[in-house]
Design a protein that fits this description.
alpha/beta, elongated, protein serine/threonine kinase activity, PSRP, transferase, Putative phosphoenolpyruvate synthase regulatory protein
Length: 285
């Protein structure tokens, strides 16, 4: 089954796309063609969109689905008059929430991604700069300034997770890749033991690691399954000595890994005991 989906907004459309995409993931038997349509903020643009909706309906043999965040009722009505299945995302939540709070909503577009808290925005920018400057163990002398330090074998997801933590949570994140010297010595440097209170280890299934490394260095010893298996095995021994939480990135997204790290950090702050076994599934399955 093929269906066209439009993410529509009078502003950036980030909210419509994010929530709409999350809903679509529950229907993996359908092949969705996704169309991003931000800044539909005039009657003319709305009418032009209805033409595209009709074209999609004619092509697919089924009306397209529209996920929208449209606060302007006139423009919303124009789009709804088109040949589509229209879902107004704000409408579902804002009314009941307003009733519960006892205050009317502001009905201002673009609020969810606007810079409403300049101090936090500045913190996020600083955190992103920190993550980029402290990637791949470039500045281990800065680990004491980090909020989070990640370690793991090459290509286990350290860099994207650090950037996500910086961008979405404003955390200064650094990472340390386990090196050839570490494998030969059979242990990580003392500097990782010194920052155990903020350290998390990332692991990954050898088969998945091989696929990722093969894309980077096709046919190399670095990408061989045996090398991946050996690297993961020795790294797991290091993590056990470190006694730090280990998160498996094999089947989990960056968002899921990051949420586990945030949860663990909050538990540390609250003085609750952390589970030092692997979080999110076992490696080497």
């Amino acid at each position: 089954m093929n269906r066209t989906v439009f993410f529509v907004s009078e502003s950036t459309g980030i909210t419509a796309e994010t929530l709409g995409h999350s809903l679509l993931t529950q229907f993996d038997s359908v092949d969705f063609e996704q169309v991003y349509m931000p800044y539909i903020n005039t009657d003319l643009r709305a009418k032009a969109l209805t033409q595209r909706l009709q074209e999609a309906a004619d092509r697919d043999g089924a009306r397209p689905i529209v996920f929208a965040t449209m606060l302007n009722e006139e423009i919303r009505d124009i789009i709804k008059s088109g040949n589509c299945f229209y879902m107004e995302l704000f409408e579902v939540f804002v009314g009941p929430l307003s009733k519960e709070l006892g205050v009317p909503p502001s009905m201002k577009s673009g609020r969810s991604h606007a810079i409403t808290k300049p101090s936090f925005y500045t913190k996020r920018i600083e955190a992103i700069n920190f993550a980029m400057a402290n990637d791949d163990g470039i500045r281990p002398d800065n680990f004491h300034r980090a909020d989070v330090v990640l370690t793991g074998v090459s290509r286990s997801g350290k860099t994207p997770t650090c950037l996500y933590l910086a961008m979405h949570y404003g955390l200064r994140s650094a990472n340390y890749p386990i090196t050839e010297e570490d494998f030969e010595r059979g242990d990580v440097p003392q500097l990782l033991y010194d920052c155990k209170d903020k350290l998390f280890a990332l692991t990954i299934d050898p088969q998945r690691l091989q696929l990722i490394r093969e894309e980077r260095r096709p046919g190399s010893p670095y990408a061989s399954l045996k090398r991946c298996q050996d690297d993961i095995r020795v790294a797991q021994q290091m993590f056990k000595r470190l006694q730090v939480p280990t998160l498996n990135t094999t089947t989990q997204s960056i968002e899921e890994i990051s949420s586990q790290i945030i949860k663990a950090l909050k538990e540390r702050q609250e003085g609750r005991p952390l589970e030092l076994t692997e979080m999110g599934g076992a490696a080497g399955r």
